[in-house]
Design goal:
six-stranded mixed β-sheet; alpha+beta; 43% helix; Actin, Chain A, domain 4; 26 helices; Substrate Binding Domain Of DNAk, Chain A, domain 1; Nucleotidyltransferase, domain 5
Length: 956
């Protein structure tokens, strides 16, 4: 009988589904990295595990952003900071804000002033920052150092998820411009990580807050929140709105939570680092005033590194206490420092900093166009907000009606919010939609010259805003050049930055971002110059601000509208209905993929900017351009007399020569060199890890071997010669380790371990045999006794009352006899041997015998449980015949004998063959009563070979 077709299809489908699931499990997990100036946090999302923070090697939830190089070894985090206390120039810290900066940037100058012991040199090709290592003369760019931290972050994530991870969402400060964001992406590329998105840290924190509070949002009125984030390096404040908005699904629209950033304010140098530096300098001045030594502590880099570390500890303690002692042993010239510092002294020391606490909040309110009364709550984020004075000034200066919000995890909010975004963007997870719209912090404009008509007059420069201040993104915009019919060029750069301080504008670096030259414009126009019915719509440049806040020039094209004769056969009504229905069933993804221009502007008029307070009205059109857009997509009826004419759109692609003017990260050969450098360092780290593991294994083996040989069980299992040989080998390896073994490679250490293992393995095996043999023999004896009891009961019962044949009974009896005889003989021989000799009765052979008797008993018990006795029928009374009674009885006896014999033969054929030994070794349990119906599989102990292997690993 064949299997039904539907069952085959169902089984195949289930198999494919399960197979795909199993394959994808190994590439599903994603991570987020919140890499800050001082700390790095990593979060993961993996199958079956919700968002969680990945722990580092010390089982801590955050890791210092620090990389140190000492004696050819690379360390991270706390280990790196430990190196930095003794060798400050070897530990690189606070390098995140040097991404995308030229050597003459004010941020670089400030960094040199704060950390004078670093040797910072210019990159000869890009004039950017390079750290020169004092010991090896190696040079590291900020991108390479960030790549090392990202690589370490992936290691933490993979250890937590138990699988490979190659995709990530990385949080960055909102004030990162095009240069810094591009550098961060390049750092991830060097580390071999695919970046799903760069997300602003305050947006990630707001997302983390919103995903747990969607029930408090509504469709009619948005909820406004302020997120005040003071970190180690800077302070960022964002005004965010939450609202429920209907999705674009035409079939079943649903309400989706929507997050929009309305206003942002920041202070780049207002954070915990500046407070810590001031405390460091304060302690240095106090110590110099004590005149304990003639040397100036500020001139000693190691002493200043110790003071910097102590200042960080003191800052944290004074956040919870009113006073504390700063203590350092052997600060300089073996002189100790012990100075009492009060919270009032700290507040006076940083008075000007605390006066700036409210400034970024005020800037954010101004950018959003809201007042503090409309803000639901001011939510604190960042470790700097734990300082009591910061909270006091916020309450005093903001004058909010609500108390400060402390429900957000100040350290992990950004990492967890970015992890949610990573799960949303990856292909392996389905999460509830939460739409996010960020805001442009630095407006971007296009600058070009009007086409010269009169060569005697200078060209007039025209500026057009492309993305205004606080314009939402991601978003696409189009700028139209109507009058240029020759090849021309234009530039893209930052627009008016009056909302920023003069020094902050300098920190942005180059204000010009790109120089774009268009080639082939004249040739594109000339193709249609002599044709009739041609209407040129100008050169259109398509720009986009993507989810990561990066400006992209997608393409440039000449748009031509051509009037042609329409087909005489009109589209059928049925066809129109079909097209309408197909459009209705478009999914939201297809709708979003439509390349609909967001902004289109002729040369004569400025690009109108979207209102900062409008959440949804991101598409703004000029009246003329709205008409033009209508022409591009629809057939325009010119007049009743021209019904047979229609307008078609023709696009001619224009060649673009795009040159970036801001600081670009390493490219081509330089990029490959950085990738190779990181890969080589990783190989060195792996070799170091292997060496440490091998060394630890060898040292542990020596200690355990000596300890075990002092125990009676192990000592009795070895001869005097073996014991002496093992102890000599331990002494030999120990002496070798003290001389030059600690510098040996992992392969040499492993060979020493193998030499020791060869000597101790026979002794450990004997010890194991002697320890395990009694329990195994006891189990075998129990099984034999149970089998004997079962056999006796069968013998006392007639064969007609059992399902067994005589052959089966004889086979069981023979097997019991052989195993019993073998056991007694082997036990007798084993007892004659000393423990230091290899045993003749091994655990493995006992297990084999036990397995054979258990297998035979299992067969018989299974047959017994499935057997149903036949009911005896009453003998029928037959009419007397000519035969005598004796002859009748004789015939009946012959018939019965024949029947029993035939049944025995049949059962013998059906019964499986019973083997003396089995290649499969199972665990052993005691046999129960002979007639008990138990179908559970007996457990047999592992073979000697398996036990020996496991024991060797556990002992050595």
């Amino acid at each position: 009988m064949g299997i039904p077709f539907w069952k085959c299809v169902t089984a195949l489908t289930m198999f494919l589904v399960l197979s795909l699931h199993i394959v994808n499990v190994h590439s599903l997990a994603v991570m987020s990295v919140d890499i800050g100036s001082e700390w790095m946090k990593v979060a993961i999302v993996s199958p079956g595990v919700p968002m969680e923070i990945a722990l580092n090697k010390e089982s801590k939830r955050k890791t210092p952003t620090a990389v140190a190089f000492r004696n050819g070894e690379r360390t991270f985090g706390e280990d790196a900071l430990t190196v930095g206390v003794r060798f400050p120039s070897n530990c690189f810290i606070y390098f995140l804000d040097l991404l995308g900066k030229k050597i003459d940037n004010p941020i670089v100058d400030l960094y040199k002033k704060r950390f004078p012991y670093f040797n910072i040199i210019p990159d000869p090709k890009r004039n950017t920052v390079l750290f020169k290592h004092s010991e090896s003369n190696d040079q590291f760019s900020p991108e390479e150092l960030v790549a090392m931290m990202l690589e370490k972050a992936r290691e933490f994530a993979q250890d937590s998820a138990g699988q490979a991870i190659n995709e990530a969402v990385i949080s960055v400060p909102g004030y990162f411009g095009q240069a810094e964001r591009t550098a961060m992406l390049k750092a991830a590329e060097i580390a071999g990580i695919k970046v799903l998105q760069l997300i602003n840290s305050y947006t990630a924190a707001a997302l983390n807050y919103g995903i747990f509070r969607t029930k408090s949002f509504n469709e009619t009125s948005p909820m406004y929140m302020m997120f005040y984030d003071m970190g180690a390096y800077s302070t960022q404040v964002s005004i965010v709105s939450y609202q429920l908005i209907k999705s674009k699904d035409r079939i079943a629209p649903e309400l989706q939570p929507h997050l929009a950033v309305l206003g942002v304010g920041y202070e780049r140098n207002l954070g915990g680092l500046e407070i810590q530096l001031r405390l460091r300098d304060y302690l240095a001045a106090k110590f110099n005033d004590l005149k304990l030594t003639s040397n100036d502590v500020t001139k000693n880099s190691r002493s200043m590194a110790k003071l910097f570390k102590e200042a960080g500890r003191l800052k944290n303690v004074l956040s919870a206490n009113t006073e504390h002692f700063a203590q350092i042993e052997g600060l300089i010239d073996e002189k100790d420092m012990r100075i009492k510092v009060t919270r009032e002294e700290l507040e006076e020391l940083c008075k000007d900093l605390f006066d700036k606490v409210v400034l970024p909040a005020q800037k954010a309110l101004e950018a959003s166009g809201l007042t503090i009364e409309l803000i639901e709550q001011v939510m604190l984020a960042g470790a700097g907000t734990r300082v009591p004075k910061v909270q006091d000034r916020l309450v005093k200066d903001l004058k909010s009606n609500q108390p400060l919000g402390r429900s957000l995890n100040t350290d992990e909010a950004a990492a967890l919010g970015a992890a949610y975004k990573a799960a949303d963007l990856s292909n392996g997870f389905k999460v509830k939609a939460f739409i996010t719209k960020d805001a442009t912090l630095f407006p971007i404009q296009v600058t070009f010259d009007k086409e010269v008509i009169d060569e005697n007059k200078p060209a007039k420069q025209v500026k057009r805003i492309l993305f205004g201040h606080m314009n939402p993104y991601p978003q696409r915009k189009i700028i139209t050049f109507n009058k240029h019919q020759q090849d021309f060029d234009f530039t893209v750069g930052y627009a008016e930055l009056s909302h920023l301080h003069e020094n902050e504008v300098k920190c942005l670096g180059s204000l010009q971002l790109s120089s774009i030259k268009l080639n082939g414009v004249r040739d594109a126009y000339s193709k249609y110059q002599d044709q009739e019915g041609i209407d040129t719509k100008g050169i259109k440049a398509h720009f986009a601000m993507d989810d990561s806040g990066l400006l992209i020039l997608q393409n440039v094209e000449l748009l031509i509208e051509k009037t042609v004769a329409a087909d005489t056969e009109e589209e059928s009504t049925l066809s129109k209905i079909g097209n309408t229905i197909s459009n209705l069933f478009k999914g939201p993804e297809e709708v979003l993929k439509e390349d609909k221009p967001v902004h289109e502007t002729p040369e004569e008029g400025p690009i109108p900017q979207a209102s900062n307070n409008t959440l949804n009205n991101t598409d703004t059109y000029d009246h003329t351009n709205s008409t033009e857009q209508l022409k591009l997509n629809d057939t325009v009826s010119i007049s009743e007399s021209k019904k047979n004419l229609k307008v078609v759109t023709v696009k001619e692609t224009i060649d673009v020569n795009h040159e970036y003017l801001f600081v670009l990260p390493a490219q081509d050969d330089d990029l490959q060199s950085s990738i190779n450098k990181i890969a080589e360092l990783k190989e060195i780290d792996l070799a170091k890890s292997r060496k440490e593991t091998s060394l630890n294994t060898l040292e542990t083996a020596i200690i355990e071997t000596r300890e075990k040989l002092e125990q009676p069980d192990y000592a009795s299992s070895a001869t005097d010669i073996e014991t002496q040989s093992i102890l000599d080998k331990c002494s030999e390896i120990s002496n070798w380790l003290e001389d030059d073994g600690f510098g040996a490679e992992a392969e040499v250490l492993d060979s020493k371990f193998d030499d020791l293992k060869k000597l101790v393995l026979p002794v450990w095996e004997r010890t194991f045999e002697h320890a395990e043999r009694p329990s195994r023999l006891e189990a075998l004896t129990s099984a034999l006794n149970s089998s004997n009891s079962f056999l006796e009961k069968i013998k006392n019962t007639t064969l007609d009352d059992t399902p067994f044949t005589q052959v089966e009974i004889d086979t069981l009896e023979k097997l019991i006899s052989e195993i019993t005889t073998w056991k007694e003989k082997q036990v007798e021989e084993q007892e004659k041997l000393p423990k230091s000799v290899d045993p003749v009765l091994t655990v493995q052979t006992i297990a084999i015998k036990h397995s054979s008797i258990e297998r035979e008993m299992r067969y018989l018990m299974t047959k017994f449980t499935s057997w149903k006795p036949k009911k005896k029928e009453d003998p029928k009374v037959k009419a007397p015949t000519s035969q005598t009674d004796n002859e009748k009885d004789k015939i009946l006896e012959e018939d019965n004998d024949t029947t029993v014999k035939n049944n025995a033969q049949e059962d013998e054929v059906e019964k499986p063959t019973v083997e003396e030994a089995s290649s499969t070794v199972e665990d052993n349990v005691e046999s129960e009563s002979p007639l008990k119906t138990d179908n559970t599989k007996p457990i047999v102990e592992p073979t000697k070979t398996e036990e020996k292997k496991d024991d060797t690993h556990s002992e050595l």
